[in-house]
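Ticket #4471: complex job returned nothing on first submit. Input attached below:
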Amino acid sequence: MRHVWSMVVILVAAVSLHAQQTDSTHGVDTTLPPNVYRLKLFISGGMQFTLFKEPTTTVGNRRSFVMPTFNVRAMWKPEHLLSVGLMSGYTKLARETLTAQDIPQLQGDIRLELDAIPMMMVFAMQQYGVEVSVGIGAYYLMSSSTGARFGDTRSADFTLGVSLLAGYTYKFSDRFGLGVEAGLHNLSSRGIFGIAPALRLEYDFYTY
Amino acid sequence: MRWLLPFVILAGCVTPLEDILDPAIDLDDVEASVTLLDTTAKEDMGGVYAVEEGQQQFGDTIALRWNARDLSGFGTRNVCFLTMRGGTRGDTGVIEGTWRFTTGSSTGIIRLRALPDEGGRALSSGKVKTRDIVWRGTWSGADGANARPLVLRGQRALFRRPNGFSIIAHRGGGRNSERYGVSENSLEMMRLASRLGATGIEIDVHRTKDDQAIIFHDPTFTPRTIRGAYVLGDVENYTLRQIKAVARLVNGEQIPTLEEALRTVIDETPLEMVWLDIKAESIIDSIITIQKRLMDYAVQQRRSVRIYLGIPTTEVRDAYVASPLRGTVPVLCELDANSVRAVDAAVWAPRFTAGLQLDVVKQMHREQRRVYVWTLDDPNFMRSFLVDGDFDGVLTNYPMLLAAIFYTRSL
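Support reply: We reran it on our side without changes. The output follows.
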């Protein structure tokens, strides 16, 4: 994990340094007049590879899952490299079924699921369609267990998390763009790490 | 963007704690290789020992005290504790075991002998006094390498308080942060508590969704206390059956019920006192019922164990006062003196931050109530409260430190 975060540090430092060295005309959308502000919406969807530091249950060895994910970001982009916004979405982090073979007390199957809803503030830098974002905030984790002999349980809790997203968007119209993005998500206090390649839609929904 | 760097660096720079190695010694093997001492010899052998060699490691004094099968040693340096077994081989005393610094991850092996003319013969004859014994041997790392000399010379008997004194370990024996290899509020921790110097324990009682009493401190399941990705949120969202099936404490143990915990204390430990810290006043009747049943069980087993229903808040106090089972079990009250009298508590347990409160403590003693103070972890406060105060017990996260300070007091 340290190596991953070292790479993240280097990447962020590189983008930061490049941004500082850039003069005021670089990276600015020169098709628009100065003092133009935009509100953008990003919708991304794909699959997330989630890795758990510890096995997800005390009876099994399972530590990784590939599950669907999507996120939505609303960003405010002034006439500057930096934009800021909010991100949310939904990711299914894990899903598995335990049987009586796994846990004798069960006497039947129990289905376990873990979902996450990010609630983050996002800071992004973009230039020539390439965007790098860092999200800091919370994840709302929801767990459920369902079993005929056990009854159902729903429970939830918040946990802190950090996300790093990098993507490229091709603008095929004034308002719309289509692209790809890769996300890294770290819920370090829970020992959960995710890598999520996705397709994304960019929509400039308001300009002023 | 530059200002984001610190956040990113911080997120990646959490240093993992050093692993604590398992010393390469089996206490059962040590016990099997010696002739065991009888109870009187154990009592007489226990005492305050001056550390003649090994002071840099263990400080100036160690208190040795037998707890059933184990010989525990307590020192103030690095909050150290020793866990040993022993007896005699012919006319030589033998004690071997482990040492551990609670402040950190250092641990290792101790091997000591009392030669025939330095107390060994007296030990084997069963007529020994602390001051007659010199233990000579070595201490080493967990793998037994780098053995260095250790000499303990008996000085005097352990300090005792005329009315008795309780060294009460928090959360069943210790917190997860102490990294004893067993989890707080687990049965395994309760079994360990006396080795850590405790004569009593405090355990936390919560309720499940189906109103069962379990031993757990926090109101929610978090990575601090629980292993397993699917177990999170409020404890009261889960039934006992679900908890037993899918929840495990951080070191892999089950979460015990109140009944299991009390039965373990009575059957498997030499502990003399249990303080039930009630976190769920809505099931107070059920808790009192279990408490009564297990107190009767202790009597049947000829075990002298005081079990106190702890009242930490006004909500629990009010629930107790309204209970039809009020007055049927001994109670410990953490609130003010008036509340203590209102519930007719056998024990008053004030916070240490309120000071020595000598007048109030004196009044409590006149009313035939004991007084325990909590939670003392600083050695200077421990000394001050022991010497200048008149408390009957102290709740601490470091029972071995309190034991070292208490037992080595001058007689």
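Residues 122 and 160 of chain B are 24 Å apart (CA to CA). Closing as resolved unless it happens again.
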